[in-house]
Amino acid sequence: MGDVNWLNGSHKEENRIFDSEFEAKEWAEALYPDFVAYLSDKNNVGYATPDEKVIKYLTALFPQWASYINLQIGVCTGKTETNDQIIYKIWTVKL
Fold this sequence. Notes:
- The structure is a single chain.
- The chain is α+β, with helices and mostly antiparallel strands.
- The protein has a single domain (4-94), classed as Translation Initiation Factor IF3 (2-Layer Sandwich), CATH 3.30.110.
- It contains three helices and four strands.
- A four-stranded mixed β-sheet has the order 1-2-4-3, covered by helices on one side.
- Strand 3 and strand 4 form a beta hairpin.
- Helix 1 packs parallel to helix 3.
């Protein structure tokens, strides 16, 4: 994963599994200010959550958001298990 600036830690909803696709999409879209604040040609940005639905939406949103600042990125995903809970991860890589 290299040098990734993880966005986690500032919202209580980060460890939540949303009940619906709508809630997950709304949450993913709400991460835009956090994402663009750290993304640049020098920084990769990542996010981790127990909700796979959020990762699905961020997979589509990350490249779109990067294009707003004329940056081309790749998107990587993965998962780890922590304390018997699967944590899904997504992060950017510069192209």
